[in-house]
Amino acid sequence: MDYTFWKTFTHYFLHFIFPVFIAWIFYRNQWKKAYLIMLATMLVDLDHLFADPVFDPDRGSVGFHFLHSYYAIAVYFLMLFFKGNIRIIGTGLLFHMLTDFQDFHLWNLLNHHEYGLCYFRHHRFFVFYRHL
Fold this sequence. Notes:
By secondary structure, the chain is mostly helical. Helix 1 (4-26) packs antiparallel against helix 4 (85-112) and helix 3 (70-78) crosses helix 4 (85-112). Strands 1-2 form a two-stranded antiparallel ribbon. It has helices at residues 4-26, 31-40, 70-78, 85-112, and strands at 117-120, 125-128.
């Protein structure tokens, strides 16, 4: 089964639409400002421009690009302990990382489960399945 449409839809929904709900739930008094700040965290994807090739569908962003590294994610997590805009930026960046993580790993899992073996090249580990 080809999941291309749903992968693309989910990716852009999580990047552009779902942050409205996050802003509304956690920053209700200033949800519009919070939403715009979370959209601005998309600039984290500028680190893709330093990769060769810039886009590789067989490469996960998380753990590869320097602003998507686990060290950077740790900093984004620490931003949650601050108040104001820094917390909003941290929230947006962490959700961005979660979105990019699911975009690669979840959809690779769904696309390759029928073969009984899923290989995530970037993290170099194998996941085996048993079909019932």
